[in-house]
Amino acid sequence: MTTTISIKLETDVARREFIDKFDAFLLDCDGVIWEEEIVLPGVHETLKYLRSKGKQLLFVTNNSTRSRDAYLAKFQRLGIEAYVDEIFGSAYASAYYLKNVLDFPSDKKVYVIGESGITDELAAEGIQYIGSAADNESLKSMDFSKIVPDPEVGAVLCGFDLYVNYLKFAKAFTYLHSNPNCLFLLTNNDTTYPANGSIFPGTGSLAAPLVTALNRKPHCVIGKPNKPMLDCIVKKFHLDVKRTCMIGDRLDTDIQFGINGGISSLLVLTGVSQEKEILANDASIVPDYYIKSLGDFATIIE
Amino acid sequence: MTTTISIKLETDVARREFIDKFDAFLLDCDGVIWEEEIVLPGVHETLKYLRSKGKQLLFVTNNSTRSRDAYLAKFQRLGIEAYVDEIFGSAYASAYYLKNVLDFPSDKKVYVIGESGITDELAAEGIQYIGSAADNESLKSMDFSKIVPDPEVGAVLCGFDLYVNYLKFAKAFTYLHSNPNCLFLLTNNDTTYPANGSIFPGTGSLAAPLVTALNRKPHCVIGKPNKPMLDCIVKKFHLDVKRTCMIGDRLDTDIQFGINGGISSLLVLTGVSQEKEILANDASIVPDYYIKSLGDFATIIE
Question: On chain A, which terminus has fewer CB atoms closer than 10 Å, C or N?
């Protein structure tokens, strides 16, 4: 239960006042800017307007399968102005967090369950890694003799991995189980992954064998709604948290991310969460503001 | 806390009285009969003695990777008398349970995460299945369009699978998520698997992505310490539970299995659990009897 009341941005006056309050907007992409390969109506105009007002735009996504460069290609394909430094995916955030927050030792390695989105970002930060595509070929027999502790592995980082297999689970488990100093990190903890109008197991589910076999939680989950991702963004861009607002379509990730990070939040109703959820008497996650769609800000453009 | 006191079988008189009390002994194998490929001292003699006294012997294991025939080969290799009908692995128990307890419809299929140990036993019981080795080749792209609900899949059965991959998780999740009548069964719930003097992720951990993505527990876990395995054994062999005793080396699986099933239990100290655990003031799982090793019964042989 909460007594917070969400302000609905229904008039142009309210929309202008909202935009004047902030210098930086963190934007979720799917369900906010686009729906798969289609840009939502009015979003082109709204983003251009925010840039014309000198606002800092940052695109924040939990997807760990693509590097920032790969993500940028989608913006370009859809004709949306964006720059690689404005993109904050959970893969980049994980590499940034290891390097700049945890000060990960240069003589240690990260064991990766995840794809090139993660390894490209680790390499760009100069962090040594093993696993990932090198372990896509799984074990062919119950001979586990080559899966042994490795004191050089200082962290296991688990993200979405279409090529996850028993070898990867067994190695990651062995590094963590044998070495209490080995960090256990997840890029994000989404239990499902939306695709094809349905859902499939997400990163939080692919990490579950490790959580279950180790009988303990990860040391740190980087992505939304957790604070490490926001810590990275604030640190990198020197943001004033009082003048920063998270814009997203999911209460449990985007809006909770804003709340956890002590920044303002705006819910758009073009994705997962609906108006009735925040108006319910027992609503537990309530944004500061909400609006039907990000494109609705286009009405205030002169 | 419990007030149950375990009786230690230290004298020949106590050992003879113990054996006279029971008609049937359910035996765990690893840590009781053998240690990997070595038969523990005195076990050959003890098992022969029990047979000479007309006792029913049943070998009960949670390992689901081997069919009963494959398991029998190990007994033969180690020179231990055993018959295929005496072997109760969690793969066979799952097939038996589906057929004889759940009355699984002949026009429905089971989706299997697991190896030939499971599919051989399902085939032997005349149960249709898909998955398993047919899905060992995982997805090569994020195109999930071919992973669709299938109303003919009436159950997902998950056991140990060295070839587990994203395709298997995604299919199993889709069948369960799209169809509330689809049963979700595990052969067993051991979170770790002992091998090479270490431990690795076990069946309970490999099923964790489904449990996490679905956000619910399986309908039924067949293997020790759960009751379905004992229900199958009692049903098949018409055992008198009052004259049946479980013999094992693990308190949390074997002895709990005896307790859950309302039969007597004997702990041997040649495997995982130790004497101090049952003598502790806060012991929560206590066997009716315990003995240093199964081979110690050899002292009563005339």
Answer: C
